[in-house]
Specification:
By secondary structure, this protein is an all-alpha fold. Helices cover about 60% and strands about 0% of the residues. The protein starts with about 35 loop residues before the first helix and ends with a helix.
């Protein structure tokens, strides 16, 4: 069987074939103890969330944020606290695989949303 010729523009070189990369050793070993229990307890919730349409969870968080900020009643701060707890849960789940800069940013956002919710619950804002 004849080999197919591939048309390439004048002066271009064929692209090199990708070499398989050697397997890297993972930085973190399999979780043990409390971390493993936390991850296994979170698995059913994550699987249910994954089965939902992709727009649903962010939209729900956006609606809760909107209601928590716009509603003038102090109980609306509970929406913000709920968002903060959800974000803290996601931060805890992703902690081993995110960079230190991402960790810091996520902690700042978690504390900010939680603080805003608590201030709203106390009637300060």
């Amino acid at each position: 069987m004849a080999k197919k010729r591939v048309h390439r523009p004048e002066g271009s070189r064929p692209t090199p074939k990708a070499r398989p990369r050697p397997a890297r050793a993972t930085a973190a070993a399999a979780p043990t103890g409390a971390r493993a229990r936390f991850e296994s307890a979170s698995t059913p919730v994550l699987l249910r969330m994954r089965a939902l349409p992709t727009f649903l969870v962010p939209m729900l968080l956006a609606v809760l944020l909107f209601l928590g900020v716009v509603i003038p009643a102090p109980w609306a701060g509970s929406f913000l606290v709920l968002i903060a707890l959800f974000l803290a849960w996601l931060t805890a789940l992703s902690w081993p695989v995110i960079s230190p800069g991402s960790r810091l940013l996520r902690i700042v956002v978690d504390i900010g949303v939680l603080g805003l919710g608590v201030l709203k619950l106390l009637g300060v804002i």
